[in-house]
Design brief:
- This protein is an alpha/beta fold.
- The protein has one domain: TIM Barrel (Alpha-Beta Barrel), CATH 3.20.20.70.
- It contains 13 helices and eight strands.
- Strands 1-2-3-4-5-6-7-8 form an eight-stranded parallel beta barrel, surrounded by five helices.
């Protein structure tokens, strides 16, 4: 029987919370050791709050993540943040390829691929986001779009790095809309994504890589998602902004899922 992958629930605060607000959240939010052994919790504040939130999380079993990086160590890139800077602040994870970056900022698979590679060089684990639009889903392109994003965004990445990274399947039509994919639809797509990984990088990598679901995840719907065999957690937006709500998401992910394997 395949060993169960440890679930991971990540809070993407996007452009919310000042440094003080983030520190207040981090001070109040904590996990008992019995829960942190079962599930990994990550908080990804805005750049301006990384230092204070990271300092407040010291000693807690909660990881710090960033929402983006620029694929260069240093240089004349006004307004950007390097992987070395994130490493210096104690970040473990970094969100890359989020649909808001792709759609609003125009980031391409090739550019995201550069980010993924430089993240690994600085021991930052990518939370690599992919997903289709509603129009693409209606036209039956979900698998094609997601496959192309995986192969383009992860081109040249080593098998061992694929195995330890996180992929977040976030259907664009479900992000911030209050509408989420059904557990059956999410499981079907994520199972397909795992098969793509297995075919390209090997069965071991396909079995090891953690794949989250994201898109209007709430305490009321996370249990059904977590009980799907191939879903290993959630990337959470709005529901991660309140301590009680995010704690409940992490608790259910750690204690509520009854998976025995893949």
């Amino acid at each position: 029987m395949q060993q169960k992958r440890k679930p991971i629930v990540a809070a993407n605060w996007k452009m919310y919370k000042t440094a003080q607000e983030g520190a207040d959240f981090a001070r109040e939010f904590s996990l008992p050791s019995s829960l942190s052994e079962k599930v990994e919790a990550v908080i990804c504040p805005p750049f301006t709050a990384l230092h204070t939130v990271g300092k407040t999380l010291k000693g807690k079993e909660i990881k710090l993540g960033a929402q983006n990086l620029y694929p260069a160590v240093e240089g004349a890139f006004t307004g950007e943040v390097s992987p070395a800077m994130l490493q210096d602040l104690g970040c473990t994870y970094v969100i890359l390829g989020h649909s808001e970056r792709r759609q609003i900022m125009g980031e391409t698979d090739a550019f995201i691929n550069k980010k993924v590679k430089v993240a690994f060089l600085y021991d930052l684990v990518p939370i690599f986001c992919i997903g289709e639009t509603l129009e693409q889903r209606k036209s039956g392109q979900t698998e094609e779009i997601c496959r192309n994003q995986i192969l383009g965004g992860l081109e040249g990445v080593k098998e061992e790095d694929i195995a330890r990274m996180v992929i977040a399947y976030e259907p664009i039509w479900a992000i911030g809309t209050g509408v989420n994919a059904s557990p059956e639809d999410a499981e079907e797509t994520i199972s397909y994504l795992r098969s793509v990984i297995s075919q390209k990088w090997g069965l071991a990598a396909g079995e090891a890589v953690r794949i989250q679901y994201g898109g209007s995840v709430k305490p009321g719907n996370i249990l059904k998602l977590m009980n799907c065999a191939n879903i290993d957690g959630a990337l959470v937006g709005g529901a991660s902004l309140q301590v009680d709500s995010f704690f409940e998401l992490v608790r259910v992910a750690g204690e509520g899922a009854k998976k025995d394997g893949i």
